[in-house]
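Fold this sequence, please.
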Amino acid sequence: MTPEVLSALAVGFFGSAHCIGMCGPIAIALPVPQSNVFNFVSGRVLYNIGRIFTYSFLGALFGLLGSRIVIAGFQQFVTIVLGVIIILVVITPFKYKAKITQHKIIQKISSPIKYGIGELFKQGTIPSMFLIGVLNGFLPCGLVYIAIAGAVASGDAVSGMLYMTLFGLGTFPAMFAATIFGRFINLNLRKKLTKAVPVFAVVLAILFILRGMSLGIPYISPKISVQTVSQTEMECHPSE
């Protein structure tokens, strides 16, 4: 298991304050099926499982894309580029990032998802809690995009799925707490925790760049040879 994959858990955990800010209104406003403690708690657990399910799916999808990059021999280049992009996103002023999230294309993608979440809210059943989480996982989110970059760099579908699953699990404690105690979460504390997100994003970016440079440092920047790429291609396309 590579350091990038393990870092997904840390990025999810320390970045979960960002998740509370972005998805908090949905999490806090979740309906209460049949108004008893068991259904209340289980519904919120299912909501978070639904989010993680979507993250895992996205991880497998983009990890598969990463495997194509490995076969093509561009893994090192793409890994470095992803690291640079993450750093550029971190240092980009908020007003410019806000313009991107408010772009018409982004709104066209998110509007039907939000509509679906609204319809599931009306149902207020336990299964609907899971589906709300599934749809919530597809909503545009900068932190999720950073995690997806990690899934691409992981190099295969399984590692990508594992990366995004760990990322989702990292967000679970804070997001579950938000669904239970959301109204009591201190805004100042949330802002302080949010400041940690860029730090871990930059650490992840540096790991990507070092790995892409193939410096021969065990685990952090292992040497990637042409033979390794050829072996991966043979495994993906065995001769008949």
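The CA atoms of residues 184 and 201 lie 28 Å apart. The chain has a mean pLDDT of 77.
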